[in-house]
Amino acid sequence: MLPINDLPSPEANKIRIACAYLFSPEHTKDKQFLMNLRFDTVKAAFAEKAKRYHPDLHSQESPEMVERRKDRFIMVRESYEILKNYMLPEAKAPSVGGKPRHTIIAVGGAKGGIGKSILSANLAVSLSQVGYRTVLIDLDLGGANLHLYLGETTLPYTLSDFLSQRTAKLEEIMVTTKYGPKLIGGDSSRLGAANIDFVLKLKLLRSIRMIDADFVILDLGGDTSYNVIDFFLLADHGFVLTTCDPTSYLEAYNFIKVSLLRKLNRLFGVESTLGVEKDPLLKELIEEITLSKNGKRVKTIDQLIERVGRECPRHQSFIRDVVSKFRPLLLINMVESISDAIAPAKRIQEVARKMLSIHVEHSGTLLYQPEIKWSARDLMPVVVKSPGGYLSTFITQLIANIA
Ligand SMILES: Nc1ncnc2c1ncn2[C@@H]1O[C@H](COP(=O)(O)OP(=O)(O)O)[C@@H](O)[C@H]1O
Ligand SMILES: [Mg+2]
């Protein structure tokens, strides 16, 4: 089934164009056909068209004809990938003995320069030093520099190769670093690198979930755009970094708030992973409240839960559950003294409790350390340079809390 009615029109158009390539332009006008389309049908159409256009199957033809078939084949294959992204059931992390086989950790925060990348890199190196198969991904699409913290100055492949479909699988662009973790690096030199569209994002989210590793660490960009938030929401553990600077911790709270609202809205979208009963009334209510559709935005999550209780009572406990399971982990970085973090952490926790009805755990405070400051220049992770040192001990404690 294609969620053609739920999508913004550029996405719906993309689906229509893909259907025109795999079926016919007439089919794209038939809403019922699009809505009821099954993946088996798409697969069969792809197989049939692939046979017709695959250049290798027609190599005896004139070079122009082969070239024409090749162009057509590329479009057919792209169309198939687009529809597949929308139609395949959500890829769930496979499990071993009932436990998730891999854990995704996101490192976010609403600003740049607050230590997200350095923490991600050292966390990944530490995890791999204790024997976990770890993959680190630079998802700061506009400001990719994670590789430098792992001592890699250039990368043979980057995420751009995957996003531009030069490679089909994330595994193909993983680079084994000298310090242990595998790295999927970024390349923000490409114009528009940060602007990945909806279909590509879905593909990336799904591919990250499928990575075969014990830990996948996501180093995020420093803003509250939907792309960043969606990567954050993918994680089993989401760290939110901030400094003690008021602009930074206010933004950190904002990041937490936007993430929770997005999580609630995504319960119903194509990206939904929660398998919720899709009650249109509840969908409408949540949209009205969180997106302020009719100007009736409620001020607190408590008010939202209360309205759900009044208007869709059978879903109230479900929504309460979704909210209570959202547990961001706050890290305060670059403080002069550990006690400097107490007030900002308390402030964020209080506001989050009052406005969002959630508990924000204060997971740690990290001192400003010259050794950390110069780690990119040294091209060596701090935990390798100073095993048993300050950052190494800090990260060991973090891992003990989540592993
Ligand atoms: N605890 C710390 N002490 C000293 N310098 C730090 C600390 N945390 C981060 N830095 C420095 O701050 C700069 C930005 O860090 P980075 O991890 O690249 O931030 P982000 O990924 O949030 O943009 C780097 O030079 C880094 O070494
Ligand atoms: Mg960074």
> What CATH architecture label of the largest domain applies?
3-Layer(aba) Sandwich
What count of helical segments does DSSP give? 18
Mean pLDDT: 86
Strand order of the largest sheet: 5-6-4-7-3-8-9-10
Kindly estimate the percentage of residues that lie in beta strands according to DSSP: 5-15%
* Biggest beta sheet attributes: 8 strands, mixed
Shape: flat
Heteromolecules bound: adenosine-5'-diphosphate, magnesium ion
| Structural class by sheet pairing and helices | alpha/beta
Radius of gyration: 23 Å
What's the number of domains? 2
**Low-confidence parts, pLDDT < 50 over ≥5 residues?**
90-100
Q: How many runs of DSSP E, i.e. beta strands?
A: 10
Distance between the termini: 38 Å
- The name CATH uses for the topology of the largest domain is Rossmann fold
Q: What is the CATH superfamily classification of the largest domain?
A: P-loop containing nucleotide triphosphate hydrolases
Determine and state the CATH class of the largest domain: Alpha Beta
The succession of helices and strands, N to C, reads HHHHEEEHEHHEEHEHEHHHHEHEHHHH
What level of helicity do the residues show?
Answer: 40-55%
